[in-house]
Amino acid sequence: MKDANKMHGILFLISRLMPVTIKIIPGLLSVSLIILLIQALIPLVQVQVTLHLVNSIQQLVEGSTQFSTSLIWLSIQGGVGLLTASTLMWDQLLKKKMLFQVSFFFEKKVLEKSQKLSLIHYEIPQSYDLLAQTNGAGERGFQVLSSIGIIFMYCITMVGYLATLAKYSWLLPLLIILLIIPVVIFNIKLGGKRYEQMIFQSPDSRKATYITQLFKGRDSIKEIKMYGTGEYLLNKWSSIYWVQANEKYSLEKKAGWINFKLEALGVVSILVASAMLIFIVSKESLSLGEYVALTAVITSSYAMSKTIASNFSRIFEDALFATKIFSFLDLPEENKDHQLKMFPEKLVKGLEVRDLTFNYPGQNRPVLKNVSFTIGVGERVAIVGYNGAGKSTLIKCIMGLYPVPRGMIFFDGVDINDFDRSTLYENVTAIFQDFVKYNLTLRENVAFGNLHKLNDDFALSEATSKAEVFSFIDRLDHKYETELGPLFSGGQDISGGQWQKIAISRAFLRNSQIVIFDEATSALDPVSEYFLLEKIINMTEGKTTIFISHRLNSCRMADSILVLQDGEVVESGGHQQLLNLRGYYADMFEKQSSGYVGAV
Ligand SMILES: Nc1ncnc2c1ncn2[C@@H]1O[C@H](COP(=O)(O)OP(=O)(O)OP(=O)(O)O)[C@@H](O)[C@H]1O
């Protein structure tokens, strides 16, 4: 990335970050600014106090002043020391408080934004990288402001220092300014390089984190043990780790070497400045106090210039990092750009899919090709096809989870893009094969289907009994308050089929007009699946039901069946009709039936 672009990125960040921060923490920010100002002035006061203290001691030795004068200056020095300590404490406390508030604000924004993005963003690696880069970005954003504050504070002190030195010789401040410039430039470049490295390493870092999570996950460690893939994965992780560590080390080595040269330059400059000071002392007979104070000013100026430079470096690193948060927050949201309609309270015509063609981002080959069909209100439709035929993709398009161009999906003749998403999701519900097992209470697991019913035990019982899970709940000691899953203490894990039935009860609680079961019963044994599907179909009487199942026996219950093959609808009709057709469906059905017959 060019330096000009980086600079632009930082200015962009500051222009967005500042107003937000001022809005979130106006009071804390103002108090912090006052403390910064006090902190900036304290070193200037300290210089004067040191000067007077040393002079008073010299006068005491010469017998021209009282002991009490030195004591007064000593007490003032102590007071300034206490003031320094207390401003430092308040500065740190305020920063912590501001950090919590700013981080919370941005973390929350990222989580809120994640819900507003189309699911399609989660199908592409770039989005995952961006999402990963938002981790801690709020904190980094705050660090930018904090670094600006520190630079601002030190600059005020430096101006005071340089003005003090200029009173004795203009060459002294010039020398210090000449020293600061290369240190600042170097640190800015270093910050940029560290950032570029972080972005470059981001995909592999994510992979390394993913591998470590495989070792920490219950399901994955099971397979790692069984297949003995631990060593292979460990090696993969180690190689990523060391490639990245060596890259980082190499950058730090180069930086360290340049830093060393700058340090050497700094030492020489300090020596030159001190020599100039001794020269001035010899010429203009400065007091001992002035000499001591000016020496302190020169050494502190050098230390401060390094702090200013390192904060510039941090700003570059943190700001470029924090811009990611705005890149993420600026991602386009689901249909926000036009007036949206509410989903019909009661569908009349039903669903129409017209010439639907769909590609995943970055893929040339369409996964769905000219898919067309209609589903009337109350109809039960099964979608079948081999693995990878496009069934789940079709479902996600129908649900509005993937964006589709206008003119392809309609509910009661209204384009899907014209519906307010929340009302669409309320009315078109799916239970997926990879449903979520919330490691929370059973109550929450069921009520996540419809949070308004969280405390409505009657509704929860109705939903769970429809999903045939009620009797199992009855046996649990804490009933709906039982914590499910193995992740937290006291959690009770349950079987895959029980988890699946709980997920199905969520759909019953939701009471949508269109219910979709995407292999939602696959964890059940074939008999349970058949009976549960039969029950579901009876329970969902009057509702439009779509189900995907690889067990074709279940398709007998459907009013019609759509057969998908390589993204196209190749057959449609009733069970018997398709068997008579002796095409794909009949072939799949016969292979499955012969499997069962052979097994008997
Ligand atoms: N995120 C993605 N990016 C690119 N291609 C994808 C993505 N997800 C799925 N695909 C591809 O889209 C095609 C259809 O996948 P889909 O999951 O819809 O099939 P399916 O019929 O539901 O399969 P299954 O019966 O195995 O669940 C497959 O070829 C798959 O490889």
Automatic annotation (TrEMBL):
Presence of the UniProt keyword Ligase in the record: no
Membrane topology: Multi-pass membrane protein
Domain of life: Bacteria
Residue ranges crossing the lipid bilayer per the database entry: 20-42, 71-90, 144-164, 170-188, 262-282
Compartments, as annotated in UniProt: Cell membrane
Signal peptide, first to last residue: none
One GO cellular component, as annotated: plasma membrane
Keyword Transport attached: yes
UniProt xrefs under InterPro entries: AAA+_ATPase (IPR003593), ABC1_TM_dom (IPR011527), ABC1_TM_sf (IPR036640), ABC_transporter-like_ATP-bd (IPR003439), ABC_transporter-like_CS (IPR017871), P-loop_NTPase (IPR027417), Type_1_exporter (IPR039421)
Domain ABC transmembrane type-1: 31-317
Ranges where the ABC transporter domain occurs: 351-591
Main location: membrane
GO molecular function: ABC-type transporter activity; ATP binding; ATP hydrolysis activity; ATPase-coupled lipid transmembrane transporter activity
SMART domains, sorted: AAA (SM00382)
Keyword annotations from UniProtKB, A to Z: ATP-binding, Cell membrane, Membrane, Nucleotide-binding, Transmembrane, Transmembrane helix, Transport
This protein's name: ABC transporter ATP-binding protein
Organism: Paenibacillus donghaensis
